[in-house]
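Our collaborator T.R. sent over the components below with a one-line note: 'Predict the complex.' Nothing else. No constraints on interfaces, no templates requested, no preferences about which chain binds where. So this is a plain run: every listed entity goes in together, and whatever single assembly comes back becomes the starting point for the next discussion.
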Amino acid sequence: MRVALMVTCINDALYPSTGQAVVRLLRRLGVEVDFPQAQTCCGQPMVNTGYLDEAVPVVRTFVDAFAGYDAVVTPSGSCAGSARHQHSIVARRSGDPALQEAVAEVGPKVYELSEFLIDVLKVTDVGAYYPHRVTYHPTCHSLRMLGVGDRPRRLLEAVRGIRLVDLPQADQCCGFGGTFAVKNADTSIAMGADKARHIRETGAEIVVAGDNSCLTHIGGVLSRQRSGVRTVHLAEILASTEARSIEGTLR
Amino acid sequence: MSGTFVGMPAFPTAAREALADSQLRHNLAHATGTIRAKRARVVAEVPDWEELRLAGAAVKERALLDLDTQLVRLEETLTANGATVHWARDAAEANAIVASIAKTHAAEEVVKVKSMVTQEIGLNEALAAEGIAAWETDLAELIVQLGDDLPSHILVPAIHRNRAEIREIFRSRMAAAGRPAPSDLTDEPAVLAAAAREHLREKFLRAKVGISGANFAVAETGTLVVVESEGNGRMCLTLPEVLVSVVGIEKVVSRWEDLDPLLRLLPRSSTGERMNPYTSTWSGIHAQEEGPSDGPQEVHVVLLDNGRTRALADEVGRQALRCIRCSACLNVCPVYERTGGHAYGSVYPGPIGAILNPLLKGVGHDDQTDSLPYASSLCGACFEVCPVRIDIPSVLVDLRAQVVDAHRGGVPKPEAAAMKGAAYVLGRSPRLSALERLTGLGMRFARRFGPTAWTGARDLPDAPGESFRAWWQRTDGGRKDDA
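Returned assembly:
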């Protein structure tokens, strides 16, 4: 099976440790991933802001980079959702039948990390060790666009040493929403403040999620509040072992 | 559309004001949280809820795909039942029709069933301009009307008010509108409801003309349906001699049996009840073999377009016309919960309002309407609860593209220029790679020159020493040096 890592633009530029964690985790599970150098972004920032024409070259680059792989794995529910559900809209807009075909070919092969681990590799216990008090925030696109359900939770429950605490109103949006975070900054921050309050109520040291975009927003609020709560991507917890632990970042 | 919300600012500005109102935030969080929990409980009781949603969406979709035929059929059956059918292209035409019917009967006042469509067309204001007083009889609408306020929720228009505020409105405003509130009025819900009942009873018994909307219109039988909780609607539908119903053309369903899934979906989705207390149906005039007929002696139905055919022509957006106004999407929306309904500047607030208003009015004409498709984090909670499966997030994204396209040409605004720049950089990976070397610099710049929309209340992450792609190249994917 030829597997490609779609690291996503935000992880590439701001959170390389998340991409590195995916590589290490999958290598430990016996899967060598390729990193197609031509990849850039899924185009979601343009699509969700209404700039479909601007998304066309980005989606073209995406399908060129990932053509021919059996599976494309990505540490982002949002970007997986974009590839699976939005690329067809962009391709239709382009009026290019070849792009429409390529999108229909690549899209269904894109897996969010927890889907890839549980549905493709059929593994729940990935052999991770993480001795921390952790609360899990299910991100909206992984939950409602992809329907990952309790997959991330099952993976986390199998981690040795972890103390997983329930997050109140967990399925409420954190308020990030891409360009929503700046176009409607006041509403976004009000939502983020409530999310941060619920996180702090759990007494967790760490909040984990499958999307670093949401964690940037949540972590930004938690950091401004000097809460001491750290944000860590799901991949980094799953990649952690006794020999090598990731403490997360205070954003 | 309605004159009631004219001059509202664009959503981000209106939202900022609402967010600063801590009493409003408290009222909304409490009320939406309560309805949300009730809905979740009663929906969980129905094992075939998802099939029911599919059935509900299907009957509405079928009627919309065949709307021209269904409407003509509805006109025929209504007319055969003794009703008079009027067609209105827009709010002005509909208001003029209703006013002229009221004037024919020399009515100085009318009683109203709670109705979204008459709010949409600003009927009360139009009638007032003709010297006709239109009295809202739904408890919450009465609160809004007496308070000289605007509705902020489809189902519970006074959701932004608490009991203490309602008591004050009744105490100070009821007298000017009719029977005053009792002097010992408390803020107990039962006491407030009793005061409203006393106040409204006189109006029910006096009014010669009743006005309603309709939840559904059955083409097969020429039947209109109103679903309500209080019974005040039924009073308006049965007591006055003349009944005028203003009905959006998307309310039509083909057959009587189509009501089955819709009447099961609606109460659980809207009030979180298994069944609503009152379902009134009427098919024209109720003819008796002997003596005068029961109920209204004269029945009018005004079939209203007001942008609905525009929405129907929108391939992605037309599904919004399936909406049965349950307001489940408002109650689960994290944006609505924090800003309330007024920020949307329309009688249709929340997620459905964010798509319905632009679809009815068209985009590219005013900033307020154009801001609505962006009033969402695209979290998808609305789609999940919608009883007729309107994919609101997808319609929002499509409308955003329509807004952007409407403003193409000329000098691009900063956002458009930024998106063009991003498209250039993200079109080819070497360009992205080059830009990533400047990430640290960019972050330092952003911190220094804040507060921006981001950094006003959020810290930025630290930039890493190198990008992922630089790490991959340096270490051969971590094989050389997995440090």
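Summary for T.R.: Chain B has a mean pLDDT of 94.
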